[in-house]
Amino acid sequence: MALGGGGWLFQNKKLPGAYINFVSKVRPTTDFADRGYGAMALELDWGPEGEVFKVEVDDFQKSSTKYFGYDYTSDKITGLRDLFKNLKTGYFYRLNNGAIKAACALATAKYGGVRGNDLTIAIQANIDDEDLYDVITYLTTDGAKTAVDKQTVASKAALTNNDYVTWKEDMTLAATAGTPLTGGSNGETISGLQYQEFLDKIEPYYFNTLGCLSTEATVQDLYIQFTKRMRDDVGAKFQTVVYGKENVDYEGVISIQNKVTDAGASLASLVYWLTGAEAACAVNASCTNKTYEGDFTVDTNYKQSELERAITAGMLIFHRVADAVDGDITGDVNILRDINTFTSFSKQKNEDFSSNQVIRVLDQIAIDVARLFNLTYLGKEPNDADGRIAFWGDLVAYHKEMQRVRAIQNFVPDDVPIPTQGESKEAVLSEYQVQPTMCMEKLYMTVVVA
Questions:
Q1: Looking at the predicted structure, is the pLDDT value of residue 309 above 60?
Q2: Out of 212, 215, 327, 345, which residue is the most buried by the measure of CB atoms under 10 Å away?
């Protein structure tokens, strides 16, 4: 007979033997949610329909045509280039109101939209084997055809759908110099319904900023109410970037004062760049004085008094900063102050809440502490003194790490009292204070001349 063995919870074993538990040494958890995630709904000539799709910065730089229909240098995606100057990961949704796919006798475009009309299919005999055919998909840009897919096959059955077309079942392999796809359309005018569909679908995703490109007041209001509900009721901590919306008065919304002056560009085009810049801004950093390095022309024709009024009204504004000492009289276009639309200051919520840097710190704490509790303690750790002390230890370690990266300051463990049991036996109550760190913005100096 074998001796007893295995793990134990109570000292109630009947058989002689060695009962050994292996457990991890208790150590604090300091997991930080990453930043650099943004979400946008776009009116496009090409792309996935009816779903949220993810594009990394590398994907955009190398394969933008596959996702958005145009190569990286195209003027058609200037805004997206601006977005990805800072953004790491984007979640996108194509606003679609009945887009139609282009088609020909050989294939149908993978997606609806006018960009499908620039596709052409060519079939030619393979020069090395007369029993094979080269089937080439071309995409025309600025009058020049570029091969985006080539397959060498002996029969239609060997063809596979590519990133641009779906082959028709009844197509036949026969040499053709080029058969264009036609009939593609972007569909009807986009309405508020399509924006609502986007917001419904984006709700489960994690992102730091949500960009609203619409200049229609009703659509902007839809985004703002969505943001308030998600932040205040659901606990999803992100900020929404809009253009020209006044009197919002909410720390979760950033409203841009400046328009762009480029012909044919939306007045709200700066939303692209700022969505990426705010999403990628580190928890210990600020976008104050950050230089706009994008491709649009920014209207910075503001007087000093107008800049002050914009700040007072909670509008994020860009201005031109020159350095005459260096001989630079043109200057860069910089963010004056990294602020949101919150303006109704009180003793409960003072001016600090208008700083996006402060909101980033508070949002980071909310996200990370919630993840810590949900993954490590919820339903797993007893709500007794030992369990709450373990949770307290993780809270202290987390805030020490936040202080190490200079996101908060003057923190000592005593700032976080050991949590107590709430009104019910399964509830944990924790109350403590933090001091977010802010980057330098103003210098007041007195020089005494002796």
A1: yes
A2: 212
Is the confidence at residue 1, as pLDDT, over 60?
Answer: no
* pLDDT tens profile 2-21: 666 666 666 777 666 666 56
pLDDT of residue 28: 58
Beta carbons of 107 and 167 less than 8 angstroms apart: yes
Do the two domains 37-96+189-335 and 101-180 of this chain adopt the same fold? no
Cα torsion 142, 145, 148, 149 to 10°: value is 160
Domain covering 37-96+189-335 in this structure, CATH number: 3.30.1490.450
d(CA 357, CA 355): 5
Per residue in 127-182, pLDDT (tens digit) is 999 889 999 999 998 889 999 999 999 999 999 999 999 999 999 899 998 999 99
Alpha carbon distances (Å) from 280 to 38, 134, 148, 207, 216: 9, 45, 32, 10, 27
Tens of pLDDT along 128-137?
A: 998 899 999 9
- Counting residues of the chain whose pLDDT is more than 70, the rounded percentage is 94
pLDDT tier for residue 324 given thresholds of 50, 70 and 90? confident
Q: Can you give the pTM of this predicted structure?
A: 0.91
- Residue 32 pLDDT: 78
Looking at domain 101-180, which CATH architecture does it have? Sandwich (2.60)
Q: Give the per-residue pLDDT at 177.
A: 87
Whether the CB-CB separation of 81 and 295 falls below 8 Å is answered with yes
Task: Give the number of other Cβ atoms within 10 Å of residue 409's Cβ.
Answer: 12
Q: Where are the domains of the chain?
A: 37-96+189-335, 101-180
Half-sphere exposure of 276 (CA within 13 A, CB side): 22
